[in-house]
Amino acid sequence: MATYSRDADDVYTGWIASVDPVAGVETMIVGGLSKPVGIAVIGDTLFVGDQSQRQLFKLDLKAAAPALTLVSDEFESLDLMETTPDGALLVLSYDTANSTGRVYRVTGDGAISTVAEGDWEPRGIAFDGVSRIFVSARDSQQIVVLPAC
User: Fold this and answer.
1) Looking at residue 115, what DSSP letter applies?
2) d(Cα 91, Cα 133) in Å, to the nearest integer?
3) Any idea what DSSP says for residue 96?
4) What pLDDT was estimated at residue 147?
5) Cβ atoms within 10 Å of 95's Cβ, excluding its own
6) How far apart are CA 78 and CA 7, in angstroms?
7) Residue (of 16, 10, 108, 91) closest to 52 by Cα position
């Protein structure tokens, strides 16, 4: 799980943790994030977005000491993400300066392309695994249906 706390001075501190479903015990895997909001796993690689830092990271879950590796710091305000059957990520982002929502595709080798953009503020994403991407728009309470990449 990705989580964060915010102190009285509005400073965010975030981390990635595993949770034992039986004991309910949280174990930190890695810290050093500010405001992690999106998380996805492809194989043995975990991807996490740090919204306030505009960064996408990955880490090897099989490593003895998992560490964050920067994939990109070119995103606007990152939000949730979804995996695709071919091992890529669909990443939501919102450009507040231009009021533009975007869906990016990030491949396993780190190539980033824009799949869709529009005048919606994305909040959630789902992929039917075949031909459609569903994005929930925050303020309009609508589902935007997009062709898959």
Assistant:
1) E
2) 11
3) T
4) 86
5) 14
6) 21
7) 10
135 closest CA partner among 108, 111, 117: 117
At 3-48, the pLDDT tens digits run 889 999 989 899 999 999 999 899 999 999 999 988 999 999 999 9
- Is residue 3 within 8 A of residue 15, CB to CB? The reply is yes
Give the model's pLDDT for residue 149: 62
- Single pTM value for the model: 0.87
Residue 76 binned pLDDT confidence (cut-offs 50, 70, 90): confident
DSSP 3-state helix, strand, coil percentages of the chain (rounded to 5)?
A: 0, 60, 40
Closest CA to 62 of 82, 42, 85: 42
What is d(CA 98, CA 52) in angstroms, rounded to the nearest whole number? 17
